[in-house]
Amino acid sequence: MRRRWWTAAAALLIGACGTSSDPIATPADAGATVDATAETEASAEAAAPVADVSLYAVAELPRTDATQGLSGTFFDEATSTLYAIQDTQARVVPLVAAQDFRAFSPATPIALTGRPDPTWDGEGIVRSGAELLAITVETEPRLERFDANGAYLGRIDLPARFASQAPGNKGMESLALSPRFLFTANEAALPADGPVASKTRGTLVRIVRRDRSSGTTTEHAYRTEPLGAGAGGGDMGVSELLAVTDDALLVLERGFQSGFGNTVRIFRVDLAGAPDVSGVPALGDATPVLTKKLLVDIGTLPPGDVTHPGTQPNPLLDNYESLALGPPLGDGRRLLFVTSDDNASATQVARVLVLAIRGL
Q1: Which region, left, alpha or beta, applies to residue 114 given φ > 0 means left and ψ of -120 to 50 means alpha?
Q2: For position 243, what pLDDT does the model report?
Q3: Which long-range contacts (CB under 8 A, 24 or more apart) does 300-304 make?
Q4: N or C terminus of the chain: which is more exposed, having fewer CB within 10 Å?
C-alpha cells in the first residue's frame, strides 16, 4: 500500500491527469438503468433525466479514521486513485480503486501543513497542475493552495459577500475546475438572498465562476429543489459542483429530514450566456436563475442488496458531498464517483457510489 501511495504522490507532483485512450474492460453492469420518466418534486424544466444513468457499483469503505468526513474528491486516472479531503482533519486521503472500480482501498493520507489558520473544515478539493486547491473553511470565502506534498502555498480570496451565510454552516461547500475556470457555490442562500429551502420552495444560491488567468469572477443564480417528501423540517442545498466543460456543470443537491433521511439529486446546468448577478446585492423572485436538467435522482435507483444502518427512503442514500468524473468504459459510458460524508456517525456510511453515464 505504501508503494502505491508514493506512486500516486509522484503523479500529483508532476500533475499527471490525462484521459486514457484505451477502453476499460469491465464485467456486466451491476444495476439497472434509471427510469427515464423519473421526476423531481418541483421543477418542471428538470423533470426528465438528460442522460442514461445506471448504478455500476456500490463501494463500501471500511470504518476507519481515514474514511470519516470525506467531503470533496478528485480522480487521478493515471494512478486510478480517488483523492478525498476530510472535514475532520487537515489531510487528503487517497482511495485506490480496484481494477474494475467496484472497490476502493484507503492509502496513506497526505497531511496539509503550514496553514496560518488553525480553523479547519475541509469541504472541496481539485488539482490544478502540480497544486492542490481546497475549500478549507466553509465559513470563509477563500481557497487555499498546497503543493503535491501538502505544503501550504497561499490563498485565493473569493467575493467578500460570501463571508455572510445562512445559519447552520451553510457556506462554501463545493469546488470544481475546468480548463479555464474555477467554480464554487454557497450551500444555501446568503441572508440577503432569501430563505433556506422549505417544503414548497428551494433556496437561491450563487455559483461563482473565477477565471484562472485573470482572477475575474462572475456569479450565476441557481435555485435548489424544495425539501424532500418527509413530514418534518430539514435542509436542502448545493453540496458539490463538477465541471464537464468551461460552461457545463453538474450540481449535487443534497437534503436531509429527520425521521425520513436524505434526498440526493444531480442536475446539469449550462452557464453559456447566463446572466451575471454579481452586481445584484440581493437575489429574489425576479432574479433569472439557471435552467437545470435532471441527470439522476439517487433515490430512484434500484438498491439491489445494499443495506443502510439508518433511516433512509432508499438504502443507497446517504450524506453525499462529492463528485468526481472517472474513466470511460469500453462501451462508451463514463464513470462518475459520488462519495458520502459519514460524519463519523454509526447511523451513516462511508461509501463511493459508482454511476455509469451515457450522454453526459
Answers
A1: left
A2: 98
A3: 300/34, 300/35, 300/38, 301/31, 301/34, 301/55, 302/31, 302/32, 302/55, 304/30, 304/31, 304/55, 304/58
A4: N
Q: Are 125 and 110 in contact (CB under 8 A)?
A: no
Looking at the structure, give the CATH architecture of the domain made up of residues 2-14+30-358: 5 Propeller (2.115)
Entry field: residues in the chain:
360
| Structural domain boundaries in the chain | 2-14+30-358
Residue 217: name the closest of 172, 130, 279 by CA. Answer: 279
Give the 3-state secondary structure of residue 299: helix
**What does residue 59 show for φ and ψ, rounded to 5 degrees?**
-100, 100
State residue 199's pLDDT score: 94
CA 43-47-53 angle, to 5 degrees, is 130
At residue 124, what is the residue type?
Answer: G
Q: What is the mean pLDDT of residues 40-60?
A: 74
Collect all residues with Cβ–Cβ distance below 8 Å to 235 and sequence separation of at least 6. Answer: 168, 170, 188, 196, 197, 227, 255, 256
Answering whether pTM is above 0.85, one says yes
